[in-house]
Design brief:
single chain, 306 residues, mainly beta, Porin, 2 helices, 56% strand, globular
Length: 306
């Protein structure tokens, strides 16, 4: 009989090959569709500058590393965000972690849209404003084997820009492994498309999502009433150069957490910061995300354990 470790190793390797195949590395920056999927809506991820592939351990972070849900218990997360105020952007997400024996079922949905993007014709003349949004729903499975956690998620995304609407199937996978004395490693492949996406308008070419490959290290230690963790990642997408987000979080007595981060090498980087407050089975998370040219974004979430 095939052991659980062999099964997961074979699965993660096979899907990893598919994810690598989906990473169309010959694309120019910004050429991928579904651009809103690049923005993390989890306040914890956002506050850490996008870093933490080896640190994330909750349902709210499972979208960026499906293995994160294996480290979490029964939890419901709901969140709201306001990125890039110049365009009237709004974001929302929900994640639900459900224990199933020794493993986890994870369900999630996210929406991000702009209501008032200034339109221009081919000559640069102003036209009426238009909207754009991306909706994504997905479900996943994650489990642990000793110090190893693995997760896989399947999803559906729909993108709309003005009157052009298209959709595609997606898959994501991730792994997390505790190395030694608080040091851990993580990796994930996010938003790899299943087959070819399709436009409702046949005049447009087939779109593709911003597939992400990322890996990183994290180190966490407890110092009396305080605990601290630092995370550093390497991340690439099929329409971006490699970048290196780094984040730090410090927690006091498991009640209050402060976070800061910076995405080194990102196209338009900005300092990120945030906090978390815990009380009984409730956790409130907040993040501010700076931007090189636009106004900063604000993200909130409420996590409910049950």
């Amino acid at each position: 009989m095939i052991s659980k470790a062999c099964f997961w190793t074979g699965l993660i390797t096979s899907v990893g090959v598919l994810a690598a195949h989906a990473l169309e590395t010959d694309r120019a920056y910004g050429e991928a569709s579904y651009q809103f999927l690049k923005l993390p809506l989890s306040p914890r991820i956002a506050a850490l500058g996008g870093a933490g592939t080896a640190l994330w351990d909750g349902a709210g972070e499972a979208e960026s590393n499906p293995a994160a849900s294996a480290l979490d218990g029964s939890r419901l997360v709901v969140g709201y965000g306001m990125p890039f105020g110049e365009f009237g952007a709004k974001a929302s997400h929900v994640a639900w972690n459900i224990p199933w024996g020794g493993s986890r079922i994870w369900l999630g949905a996210r929406y991000l849209g702009f209501d008032a993007i200034a339109g221009h014709d081919e000559l640069g003349n102003a036209t009426t404003d238009y909207g754009a949004h991306t909706l994504k729903i997905q479900g996943g499975y994650a489990a642990s084997w000793r110090e190893l956690q693995l997760g896989l998620a399947l999803g559906y995304a729909q993108n709309n820009v003005a009157e052009a609407t298209y959709s595609t199937g997606l898959f994501s996978l991730g792994a997390h492994y505790d190395l030694w004395r608080g040091l851990s490693i993580g990796a994930s492949a996010i938003n790899a498309d299943i087959g070819a996406g399709k436009f409702r308008d046949s005049d447009y070419r087939t779109p593709f999502p911003p597939t992400t490959l990322q890996a990183g290290l994290a180190w966490a230690q407890v110092f009396g009433e305080y605990s601290a963790a630092i995370a550093a990642d390497a991340r690439t997408r099929n329409d971006e150069e490699m970048n290196f987000p780094v984040g730090l979080e410090i927690t006091w007595n498991r009640l209050a957490t402060a976070r800061v981060g910076f995405p080194f090498g990102a196209q338009e980087p900005g300092l990120t910061a945030g906090f978390g407050l815990a009380w009984s089975r409730l956790q409130l998370q907040y993040a501010y995300v700076g931007h090189e040219t636009l106004s900063g974004g604000h993200f909130l979430s409420l996590e409910i354990g049950y």
